[in-house]
Amino acid sequence: MVSVKSAKIDSNQNQPAAIASSEIPFWGRLETLWLLIGPLCTALYALCQSLAPNDLWYHVRAGELINRLGAIPTQNSMSYGTPLDTPYYYQSWLAELVLFKTLQFGGLSGLQMLRAFCLTAAITLAVIATFRFILRTQDNIRTDSATRLNAARRTAIATLWGFAMLSNNVDLRPQTFSVLLCGAWIFTLLEFDAALETNSSSKKKLGLGVGLCLLTFIWANTHGAFILALLTLVGITIGKALTRHRETKTFVAITILCILIGLLNPRGIGLYHYVLLLSNDKISQKYIQEWGAPDFSEWHNVVFFLSLPLCALIAAFSFKKQRTALSQNIPYLIVLGIVFVMGMRDIRSIIWFAFFLIPVFALIFDRAFGSDTSSETATVPAPRGAAVMNLVLLLMLIALPIPLLPSVKATLPWPNEFKQRFAPTPQRLFPNDPALLLDRTTPVEAVEFWNTNPPKGRVFTDMVCGSYMSWATHPQILPLCEPRIELFPASFWEDYVQLANGKGDIAGKMKQWGASEALLDQTTQQPLIKKLKQLGWKQISGGGKTVLLKRIP
Predict the structure, then answer these.
(1) Both 413 and 550 in a single domain?
(2) Do residues 334 and 384 make contact, with C-beta atoms less than 8 angstroms apart?
(3) Is 321's pLDDT higher than 80?
(4) Domain annotation covers residue 52
């Protein structure tokens, strides 16, 4: 009989080597994958979008004028619907210059990448700010890995909700820079407040305070939404005063300082007057959809309307936990109320509500559904292979936008439904750019037709087409108008809208403006197209959503 020697079995035998979660570098943590979701979705979405002509090209032309003249223009100079010497204030001069320089050195591809960078960077900053904001309320910003993972999940959910709201407002224009500055502002503001509350080093507080001032200066010279920075400071200051925080005086000082820094622009105090007039422009609110109040016609607006009730409902699930968290963050709730009122006033402002909602929504969600984690759970060792696998997943996710880069996207076999969203890229104007960049509303075919068949007289133009003409045909062929609503008198837009609907003295107005041709949008101006054809006008070119008609003697 063979004897078998007994052996003690090692419970750790053949088990993967383990390391504490706190020792895993950021690229190997599961929380990093969660935090990547928002920026990744933003990058993919931005790279898929076409370059719409709406507010892009007249700003690019303004940037070209600034670059060529070495000064900021002060007159119309682009459209004949109002005298060329009509005064006009180019408040977004810095953004316009950057747009032109990007086109000059990077072409259409550069503009596409610029938009993707601004939007992705803004969401990334909002994600980091929100993640740290939640962890600070847990008093566990560095050590508790389970808490960090929960915070990352809440941040991802809140970011996706916010992105759903703002995803219909990502056209490339000066506002795109405001989006980036808004993300940077939220990050810096939350860090500044935290530094004050924790009584961090004077050097850190000073640096963050200077950062707020610098952002205000850049923003005031970039886009009118800079007023958002000042309103948020006012809201936080009021909240600090109501809750008797010791940081109130500091916020009063930084608010006053940023208001004064806003004066450092070419127009000085006139900038505030300009923003006030623009925000109350009756013609814009009457005729431009994004300047009107939101309704339930678009799902983005529905998400906006649901946001505050949803936050209240989530908070109600755990009121006792929420009560402390909410009372501590009254200043940010006041800010959220301010931007919500702005969003209720006009659709264009919903994007700012979306950004400020992300940290507040994430905090409420975390308080309602976050689970208490014991120190034992928080320090469970993780296998070394988990970090490697997370790194592999991270690299795979980061690589996802590569097929959507302009030079790569044009070479792939996309469905016709996708390719039909884009106008052909005119090599005469953009010789180094691939296809699948310009939006189909861009009147490429008509402009190329004019290259060999210039119009004999003036051209009546759809305002969006006029924006592209501001770049592509300036100064040889000027459009009737473009989307600078405030440049033209109210009577002009009333006539324009009446004509677009096929009403009024169409023949008389065309004669008054000296229009021998008409470049029109087949979606919004179909009644006018029909009336002109009845008057003997013939189609001579067209493509996509635009058509070019000519008056036949």
Answers:
(1) yes
(2) no
(3) no
(4) no
